[in-house]
Amino acid sequence: MALTVTDPQPVSRAGEILTPEALAFIEELHQRFASTRSELLKARVVKREQVARTGKLDFLPETADIRSGDWKVAPAPAALQDRRVEMTGPASPAKMAINALNSGAKVWLADLEDASTPTWHNVIDSILNLRDAARGTLSYTSPEGKEYTLRTDAPLAVVVARPRGWHMDERHLLADGESTTGALVDFGLHFFHVAEQLLRNGHGPYYYLPKMESHLEARLWNDVFVFAQDYLGLPQGSIRATVLIETIPAAFEMDEILYELRDHASGLNAGRWDYLFSIIKYFRDAGPAFVLPDRASVAMTAPFMRAYTELLVKTCHHRGAFAMGGMAAVIPNRREPEVTAQAFEKVRADKTREVTDGFDGSWVAHPDLVPICQEVFDAVLGERPNQLDKQRPEVSVTAGQLLDIASAGGQVTEAGLRLNLYVAVAYTAVWISGNGAVAIHNLMEDAATAEISRSQVWQQIRNGVVLADTGNAVTRELVAGILAEETERLRTEVGEDAFERYYQPASSLIADICLSEEYTDFLTTPAYELVG
What we know:
Helix content: 40-55%
Number of strands: 15
Strand order of the largest sheet: 6-3-2-13-12-11-10-9
Number of helices: 19
Mean pLDDT: 95
Low-confidence stretches: none
Structural class: alpha/beta
Radius of gyration: 22 Å
Strand content: 5-15%
CATH class of the largest domain: Alpha Beta
Largest sheet: 8 strands, parallel
């Protein structure tokens, strides 16, 4: 087997990452694990079809012994004991990486997934930045001459890298002419180049694992970790992983996922937007009971979301793992101080709910939110690094509670439909231009929010939902008309060159997947074909 790099545009310093030794490691990962990954992706389809036929999803009877068993995950290393504030963002460009490391957050989720477009440049540059950060040499000088360097007056954020989900291919690195697995490329290059240095630094190779749908997918990650540590001669357990519970089937397998990764697990995270996206995807054929209201009106206090987060906290603390809260996606706008102040109060309320429920930390998307999250968690934790000792014996969550989507309340409106189409096109345009995170209407949008936006539109068409504010039924014709109007609106907001290169193709893609009879599992899969 031979690995071939196919990117037509050479990436600066790529030779430092794509060494023969690193490529040999990626080749080993591909040979050992790619076929299992393919089988697990097929199993996803089978399970989804079963759910579509029955309209039911439940806890697994065959793993009841694991759920009732007396076991815990391995104790967290010292560097991961305190995770009260986690900054999220892409690892490329270097300026954003430096700002995240310097933000004052305890942890930086260095994102190679939802906040990053997998151009070959972004993949390689991310690994370079993470390697240079581990060595303490990461720096950047802007075209205007402003220098960005790593701070020395306070601790840097501990890096937890997030590779792509199992579903994504890597078409810039081929094995015998076939695409490799994005998750294995991201993990493999990072682990090979950075793991030993991180351990010397007193940290370790720490990861967030996204988009999993079963404990068998967690088992595959664990097998990858065991092999990788042996390959580099590192102690077993050097790797620590936090799993995002951001799919509805994974919510029924939290114990099992932790069990499969128990020697490498450090926690679970409540990935709220992808979770809602997954509910739509899984129950798209299940009728009006599973139609969500406008995205902006789905609160974390809705009973079905409370069931999800409370079960996560209870499961984590019962097993000695950290429970990590969701994203605060507000982006400050100095031109609208009153709007920003109101948004900050919503963030404060959201983080207060999380810490009161027992979460050990939470996510923010902007450095200005770090002090708010820190203050809220400090008020409860004090000098304690976490609240693993807060058990939730009173919590008892049923399958029916997790699936009680009607408890969200709210309405579907034309305003919400317009916003979904606007966000889906605007985000997709920026994504195919090479940037995976973008501020839209003072919110940091990433692939997860774009996914739920376009999925809601498809589901509303499928169910002929009647809009509460206009009385019109959502049809393909109505959506096509509103999409055209929102696309023209975007034309007036961006330059003509950017519109023709990115926004018009993005609008065409959103039209294709929203108006199609068939549901597209991931927006980023067809969008990847538009990336240079």
